[in-house]
Specification:
single chain; alpha/beta; Immunoglobulin-like; 2 domains; 4-stranded mixed β-sheet; 2 helices; 8 strands; 17% helix; binds copper (II) ion
Amino acid sequence: MGLNEKIIFIGILGIGAMVGVISYYLFADLPPTPENTKSIYRQDLPPPSAAQASSKTESKVDPATVKADVTLTILEGSSAQGSPDFDPDELSAKKGNVIKVENADSVPHTVTNGAGPNDSNSAKIFDTSLIMGGQAAILQTEEIDAGEYAYYCTVHPYMTGTLKIQ
Ligand SMILES: [Cu+2]
């Protein structure tokens, strides 16, 4: 190894050390520890109530004990496109009825009003939120006006049905 090569080698080592030191001081503030508010990636969390505000028609009653007037079943295997999904597909209920939605499938589904995710009215009239496989949810109809409402599953938008309120 000649003298020039030695100088170049040591120079490269020196540059490496400088990059290390500079990086350390530039980025030492970034790890997101609870006390550290200096990170450039810091974002304030939304207030906790915002997450809960979305469940409009979802009731607090326990689906296991409530007496339902009408039952809507999400059939097993309905997550596969083209399979039978809701039973009955056209559900009729009287205004004020309690609708129990039973998910007989093994994956989460929802019953959400609207023609699909791009419907600007989606979830504004009724929405069960996610119902886990084997679980049930309750839809209250007291505040739903008489009429026909398309509904779908937000997880699988090809799962569609109609709710008729009399
Ligand atoms: Cu689904």
